[in-house]
């Protein structure tokens, strides 16, 4: 950890502490929405314009109109990072009016490739991109970041035992958590993408205690989007017309893709997916296994893991978390369990959530049938085993 000249660890500056995350704002307002005012008042902002600007200034404690948001991407020289950073720079993650400064971190052997990514970002001349930090130093990468997307991790290689992989990732996430704890903005929002994503997020939480537990999440939005895509293809409808699928549990083959409460927009109104598909055998069989095994299918087809879809889903996750979910719509996020739906507290578990004002809330009161209960419990059991294995690597 970086030391000051006097030998003491540099502490976070609390004088620039961020207020609570900003309220959800609309990015689809017509460009001329604020100009219906009298000529003599043209120099004054309309009440609507003032309100929009005020709300925007709560975005992670910065002004969308003036101050850039600092976004960290670890493993930035890798496949997902290479797909993700231009999306962030284009405004896909935080909106078309939000300037960003990208902080990119990777391991020393990837330093040259990382610099190549930096050069391409400069060459692309993204108007929203106000700066790039490309480094192999975790302290430099984490300093002042408002959002951290943790893509870097140690992948399982042929012949490796599960505990060996877990041990490698525990070490990585313990170290990076310590850097975020000491140097990130106090209200930093964290999304863990690298597998095992749920347990990596849990380790990060343990070693970054000053970051609120609600600010540490993992990516299951990719699985959520895969579920929407499968229903869209099955019914031959636009994917944007399908909503409220759920991914329960672990980002692994035990996850439970659930469409018990999902609906499809039709000319005669919203209809339940189960009613339109009318094939429970498919919904409880092939649909679930297709979503669970989609990552493996892509590896088999491309000889590479999912990158484009993972990057897009990471943007979806952060965008909805920060800007809010549409009314009547929920999404799936891996979040810290509070015991909802009888899921053991203390796990990072994927739930259906709504987001508003930069905060997520678990959707409550959904009916859980016997089939679903068994699926929820099975993936929770796997996560409990992963947690125990990870903690054993710390001792």
Q: Percent range for helical residues?
A: 25-40%
Note the beta-strand portion: 15-25%
Q: How does the helix and strand content classify structurally?
A: alpha/beta
Low-confidence stretches: 1-57
Averaging pLDDT over every residue, what do you get? 88
Shape: globular
N- to C-terminal distance:
21 Å
Structure, explained:
The protein is an alpha/beta fold and 395 residues long. Helix content is 39%, strand content 16%. The protein has 13 helices and 14 strands. It has helices at residues 47-56, 79-90, 111-124, 138-142, 162-183, 197-207, 221-235, 273-277, 280-284, 286-292, 294-302, 308-323, 370-394, and strands at residues 69-74, 100-105, 129-135, 147-150, 189-192, 216-218, 242-243, 246-248, 256-258, 263-266, 269-272, 331-336, 348-356, 359-362. The strands form 4 sheets. The chain has a 6-stranded parallel sheet. A 3-stranded antiparallel sheet has the order 7-10-11. Strand 13 (348-356) and strand 14 (359-362) form a beta hairpin. Helix 2 crosses helix 12 and helix 5 packs across helix 13 (370-394). The longest helix has 25 residues, at 370-394. It is globular, with a radius of gyration of 22 Å. Residues 1-57 have low confidence and may be disordered. NAD(+) binds at residues 75-81, 106, 169, 193-195. InterPro entries: L-lactate/malate_DH, Lactate/malate_DH_C, Lactate/malate_DH_N, Lactate_DH/Glyco_Ohase_4_C, Malate_DH_AS, Malate_DH_NAD-dep_euk, Malate_DH_type2, NAD(P)-bd_dom_sf. Pfam families: Ldh_1_C, Ldh_1_N. GO terms for molecular function: L-malate dehydrogenase (NAD+) activity. Belongs to the LDH/MDH superfamily. MDH type 2 family.
């Amino acid at each position: 950890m970086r030391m000051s000249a006097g030998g003491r660890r540099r502490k976070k500056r609390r004088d620039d502490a961020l207020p609570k995350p900003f309220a959800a704002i609309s990015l689809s307002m017509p460009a001329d929405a604020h100009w219906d005012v009298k000529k003599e008042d043209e120099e004054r902002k309309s009440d609507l314009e003032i309100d929009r600007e005020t709300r925007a200034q709560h975005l992670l404690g910065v002004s969308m109109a003036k101050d850039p948001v600092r976004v960290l991407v670890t493993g930035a020289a890798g496949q997902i990072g290479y797909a993700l950073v231009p999306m962030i720079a284009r405004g896909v993650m935080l909106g078309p009016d939000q300037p960003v400064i990208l902080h990119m971190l990777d391991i020393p052997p990837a330093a040259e490739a990382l610099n190549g990514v930096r050069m391409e970002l400069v060459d692309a001349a993204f108007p929203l991109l106000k700066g790039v930090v490309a480094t192999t130093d975790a302290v430099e990468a984490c300093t002042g970041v408002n959002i951290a997307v943790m893509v870097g991790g140690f992948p399982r290689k042929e012949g490796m035992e599960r505990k060996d992989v877990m041990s490698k990732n525990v070490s990585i996430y313990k170290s990076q958590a310590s850097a975020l704890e000491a140097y990130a903005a106090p209200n930093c929002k964290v999304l863990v993408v690298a597998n095992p994503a749920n347990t990596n997020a849990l380790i990060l939480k343990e070693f970054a205690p000053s970051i609120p537990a609600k600010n540490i999440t993992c990516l299951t939005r990719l699985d959520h989007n895969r579920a929407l895509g499968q229903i869209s293809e099955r019914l031959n409808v636009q994917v944007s017309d399908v909503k409220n699928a759920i991914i329960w549990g672990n980002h692994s083959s035990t996850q439970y893709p659930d469409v018990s409460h999902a609906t499809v927009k039709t000319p005669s109104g919203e209809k339940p997916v189960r009613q339109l598909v009318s094939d429970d055998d498919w919904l409880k069989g092939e649909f679930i296994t297709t979503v669970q095994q989609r990552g493996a299918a892509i590896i088999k087809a491309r000889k590479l893991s999912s990158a484009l879809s993972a990057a897009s889903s990471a943007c979806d996750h952060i965008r909805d978390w920060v800007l809010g979910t549409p009314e009547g719509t929920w999404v799936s996020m891996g979040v810290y369990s509070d015991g909802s739906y009888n899921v053991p507290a203390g796990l990072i578990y994927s739930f259906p959530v709504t987001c508003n004002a930069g905060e997520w809330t678990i959707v409550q009161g959904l009916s859980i049938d016997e089939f679903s209960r068994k699926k929820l419990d099975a993936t929770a059991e796997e996560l409990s085993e992963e947690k125990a294995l990870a903690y054993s690597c710390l001792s």
